[in-house]
TrEMBL record:
<comment type="similarity">
    <text>Belongs to the CDP-alcohol phosphatidyltransferase class-I family.</text>
</comment>
<keyword id="KW-0808">Transferase</keyword>
<dbReference type="InterPro" id="IPR048254">
    <property type="entry name" value="CDP_ALCOHOL_P_TRANSF_CS"/>
</dbReference>
<keyword id="KW-0594">Phospholipid biosynthesis</keyword>
<feature type="transmembrane region" description="Helical">
    <location>
        <begin position="60"/>
        <end position="80"/>
    </location>
</feature>
<keyword id="KW-1208">Phospholipid metabolism</keyword>
<keyword id="KW-0443">Lipid metabolism</keyword>
<keyword id="KW-0472">Membrane</keyword>
<dbReference type="InterPro" id="IPR050324">
    <property type="entry name" value="CDP-alcohol_PTase-I"/>
</dbReference>
<dbReference type="GO" id="GO:0016780">
    <property type="term" value="F:phosphotransferase activity, for other substituted phosphate groups"/>
</dbReference>
<feature type="transmembrane region" description="Helical">
    <location>
        <begin position="153"/>
        <end position="175"/>
    </location>
</feature>
<dbReference type="InterPro" id="IPR043130">
    <property type="entry name" value="CDP-OH_PTrfase_TM_dom"/>
</dbReference>
<dbReference type="InterPro" id="IPR000462">
    <property type="entry name" value="CDP-OH_P_trans"/>
</dbReference>
<keyword id="KW-0812">Transmembrane</keyword>
<feature type="transmembrane region" description="Helical">
    <location>
        <begin position="92"/>
        <end position="111"/>
    </location>
</feature>
<feature type="transmembrane region" description="Helical">
    <location>
        <begin position="187"/>
        <end position="208"/>
    </location>
</feature>
<feature type="transmembrane region" description="Helical">
    <location>
        <begin position="123"/>
        <end position="146"/>
    </location>
</feature>
Length: 239
């Protein structure tokens, strides 16, 4: 009995070690959790019952949380590559964290409650950025329905879109300070957010193209396998 119990304990220990989350995945999970206080800070940033000084403090708090999330985004990717801890869970959670952050940030920065005074994000920009993420999620669903697989393949243009959006959000949040010392800051910010929208649209088109090609290859491969199976069956019948 004692030997059996030891073997069971050893199996449980090995199973626990096998499914232990990597540090990269843990950082990604923390980044997802930090979205909650980030949203809360933005939602209360324009509360009329809060003093102007407190509103500024809330915006600074949102900036601080955003910086931590942006740094953690780079850190978890570095750790995953450096220590060879690239997992399916991490590969799935990383873009999810990015999409949750950018969707919440864009929606709030364009809203009445979460906007930065004088630097409200245009609705068209929000539609382009959030629309990209919605279409990607729909695309994943279609891929899974057709192929019974979920493939997360990063695209260079998609990474560029995310990086540009991160810079855009940071620049909007810090606009009241920088606009005082940089005369053309508002114009530069306008160029930045329209550029982010344009790159998001281009990235969406690339994802749609790649997804369509993958489905075509999958269906072609299935048809070829069926044809091969039918040929083999015919040969067996003749023999």
């Amino acid at each position: 009995m004692k030997m059996t119990d030891r073997l069971r304990s050893l199996c449980r220990l090995r199973s626990a070690e096998r499914f232990r989350l990597s540090w990269a995945t843990r950082i990604t999970l923390v980044r997802i959790l930090l979205i909650v206080p980030f949203i809360m800070f933005l939602l209360n940033m324009n509360d009329p019952t809060v003093s102007p000084r407190a509103r500024t403090g809330l915006r600074y708090a949102a900036i601080a949380v955003f910086v931590v999330m942006a740094v953690s985004d780079a850190l978890d990717g570095y750790l995953a590559r450096r220590h060879r801890q690239i997992t399916r869970l991490g590969t799935f959670l990383d873009p999810v964290a990015d999409k949750l952050l950018m969707t919440s940030a864009c929606l709030l920065l364009a809203s009445q409650r979460g906007h930065v005074e004088g630097f409200t994000l245009p609705t068209t920009v929000v539609v382009a950025i959030v629309g990209k993420d919605i279409l990607i999620v729909v695309g994943f669903a279609i891929l899974y329905l057709v192929t019974s697989q979920i493939r997360v393949v990063p695209v260079l243009l998609g990474k560029a879109a995310t990086a540009l959006q991160l810079v855009m959000v940071a620049c909007v949040l810090t606009a009241p300070e920088f606009s005082r010392v940089i005369p053309q800051y508002r114009a530069a910010l306008s160029v930045l957010w329209w550029s982010a929208a344009a790159v998001a649209i281009l990235a969406t088109l690339v994802y749609i193209r790649n997804g369509s090609r993958y489905i075509e290859r999958f269906e072609r491969s299935g048809a070829e396998n069926e044809a091969t199976g039918s040929t083999d069956a015919d040969k067996r019948q003749h023999h």
